[in-house]
Amino acid sequence: MVPGPDPAFCGSPQYQGGKVAADNRVAQYGRLTIWLVRDGQSPWCWVVPQSAQVSRADGVTFVECDRTWIALRPLGVAPIVPDDGLTRQIAEGEKPKFPGHRVLASRGQADRYCGVAVEVGEAESHGSFARFRQQVLAADLDRSKLDEGIVQYKAAGGQWLGFHWNDNPHDLGVWRNGQRHDWRSHAGQLYRGYDPESPGPLVSRWGDGSLTVSAGGHTFRCTVDSEGGVTFSNQ
After folding, report:
1. pLDDT tens figures, 96-130
2. Cα Rg for the chain, rounded, in angstroms?
3. Which of 50, 106, 159, 206 lies in disulfide reach of 80, CB 3.0 to 4.6 Å?
4. pLDDT tens-digit profile of 176-226?
């Protein structure tokens, strides 16, 4: 997903001039995400597998993948629908960038900000896609102050995420169940380089070929050997 015109750059760290419409901010809490861009007319692109089932209900676009379900709720943007022209750009030709995928696209119809609210589900969280769809359509999305960069999303299960735009990304207003996120403590939740005395939740020593993630009392480790073989372990 990217607030820009080129689906070949969705999620890419190699953003170039013109690939992103304007400054944008993301707030996330569990399975809920709010993403806004400071350009009410911004184009938006999503790249999804061709095998994913795409449907719409009450303005919500649902993407039903093999094990994960995604609901895209417009925030000042037109309906999010498949785009055949953009799909050809990424999935066809001699060297397609994303073969076997297609593009969903939309464009902003707002004054100052536009974006999308995202809810994610799976069998472990909702039991069935039908139940996920039902709960998404019962969620409360308050976009009444979108022109101020303020959005609130309350999921049917009671979890809610609040977003309040700030030009300083380190002072973005993110509320999780009514409590504002403390950015001063945020550094302790991010990646830190290898330090055996004080390892962070994400550790990947340069050149080691291993990534270790520790959270919730569990540790996950992924290692890639010199032959390209990948091993996983959970502790």
Report:
1. 989 999 999 999 999 999 999 999 999 999 999 99
2. 19
3. 106
4. 999 999 887 766 555 555 565 666 677 777 667 888 888 888 889 899 887
Q: Which helix (H) or strand (E) holds 162?
A: strand 160-164
Torsion over CA: 214, 215, 217, 219 (sign): negative
- Residue 233 CA, chain-centre distance (Å), reads 26
Nearest to residue 72, comparing CAs of 145, 139, 124? 139
The 8-class DSSP code of residue 100 comes to: T
Pairwise CA distance, residues 90 & 80, whole Å: 18
Count how many residues are written for the chain: 235
3-state helix, strand, coil in the chain (%, to 5): 15, 40, 45
Task: Name the band, by pLDDT with cuts 50, 70 and 90, for residue 175.
Answer: very high
Question: 139-156 pLDDT, tens per residue?
Answer: 999 999 999 999 999 999
Contact 88, 45 (CB under 8 A): no
Closest to 42 measured CA to CA, from 22, 60, 18:
22
**Cα–Cα distance, 80 to 106 (Å, whole number):** 5
**Domain spans of the chain, in order of start:** 7-187, 190-234
Which residues are CB-neighbours of 232 under 8 A, at least 6 positions away? 220, 221, 222
Per-residue tokens: 205: 């020593």
Instruction: Tell me how far apart the alpha carbons of residues 222 and 103 are, in angstroms, rounded to a whole number.
Output: 30
Using alpha carbons, select from 16, 36, 20 the residue that is nearest to residue 28. Answer: 36
